[in-house]
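From the shared-data thread, chain only:
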Amino acid sequence: MKRQILSLLLFPILSLYSCSRSYLSPAISGNNISYMAKPMADSDKRSKTYITGTFAGSSSPGNAVSFGAGILNIHRAHTYESFNFAYGAFGYLGQAQHNIQEVTTNENKNYLPSFDKNVSGLGLKTSIGYQVLSSNGNVNFRVINWENAFSREMGSYADFRKLQHGTGNYTDSYISDKVNIWTTGLSSELIFHGRKNKEIQHAFRLFLGTTPGLAKSFDRDRDAYDFTNNSTAWSFNYHLNVHNFSFGYEISENINVSSKFSLGYSF
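Structure, as tokens:
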């Protein structure tokens, strides 16, 4: 049932991938960087605290391992005429699942068995950027933002990856032992509201960056990888803010592909 729910969430992007190998990637890959809301320059409060709950569904290359996790984010954001910045923390808790699609009797290969393991982690994140405003203030174009997130993965899935990394026990598997994950990059964001109601705001953001060392953390020759030949990260999201409440949807990729829904409150 869990895998069916994840498949529905990820349907728009999982169809891009098809592979017979099993890639055991960090669970937070694709979700390490997430949107950090900030007040608009003409908001009544230019400094706010945001609490956001997120459900994220993601998958490693080839749909080998599926992940489902709840993420709790809290951050503080400040906006001025020409720049903005935010800082915060997050934690996540969920499951990593691998289900064998076919049973083989090939005696020369040891295939990764099915598993259902827990994942958890803690992280810190920051964002700072330059923005320009429309003449009437109802549009903020956040031209360029530098975003960073550092997280530490824990749980039985991370322990399993570290234990099996480099052993060659499973001949169909490419395993990463990375548990300390730093994602960094640049984003642009457009946020706006109607001239008569500034309490309803719409935002669109595109992020491009990298997770240094992620691709190299796998225990096989990189030239043989179908998908893990670089550590590029990207994400695109839509954010709706209505008074103090918010809704967000985001798709992203950083070796894993991910889709997530968020609900939040600010004060």
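The CA atoms of residues 38 and 118 lie 32 Å apart.
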